[in-house]
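Lab channel / #folding
Pinned by the channel admin:
"Please post every new chain as: sequence first, then the structure tokens as a reply. Keep commentary short and put observations after the output so the thread stays searchable."

First post following the new format, from NK:
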Amino acid sequence: MAVAAVAVGTAALLGAAPAGASPARATGDERSQAPNAAGLAEYARSLNDYWARNGVDAETRASLVQRIRSGQPTDSIKPGEEPVASSMKKVDKVEVTTYTYEDGSISMGYVQVEEGVVDMEVLGLDVDGAASSPSDGSIGIRSISGCTVSGGSGYSVRSNCMVAGTKDENKFQMWFFATYTIADGAYNDSISWTGNPGKTCIWPYSCGTLPVRSQLVTKETAWSTAGATYTMPYDQWFGDGTAYLNLVVGNNTSSWPLGYLTETGR
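Reply from TO:
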């Protein structure tokens, strides 16, 4: 049975660096400023609530809070770190994957698999940050009516379905929409369209431009899955980097972690 997987990762599809345009980084006044002690305490408090809602135990949360209050990033937002475990569950019409890192911090990936309007609040996504008419010109998550599913015996076509990745209580979000086919048999899965990318970047993050598609593999083969990668530079108070959001469609696929390709120290 073919499956679809989504995540944001340090590596692009097929293990190679993605090609394509490199969006501009935030610079000068657009860069996220280093927080003071009060800012770190508030940041830690909001993340503690987020971790609690997503199943991180109290002892781990206490350790992570102390780490943030001392000015150190958690593994989930630290450039170059890879998750050590993942788990997936179905929520509403969406497959939700939780990626867990060595220190217990987490990131989340989402892919819509059933037709209809997704209840973003049920998923815990920041619908306010993804307003229907965002000022940066992106297509807000709520402005799309939802995907449609069609097909027949042994295959399913999912059209205009949401793909999203988030971290840090949704202070950093990337998304796009895709049309893809899941079909029984060998090497039959494919992606026919992706588009309408968007983002939410709330302090302590800043992002200069919308995500851009940096790689597209339209058809599954004996050597690779089908997949699409969207790329976006970001700035954080401890440094900056590039985030990747991947949709992978194919047999026995693995998903990439939420992480970063590059980092510049501050």
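NK: Residues 35 and 240 are 15 Å apart (CA to CA).
TO: also worth noting, The first helix runs from residue 37 to 53.
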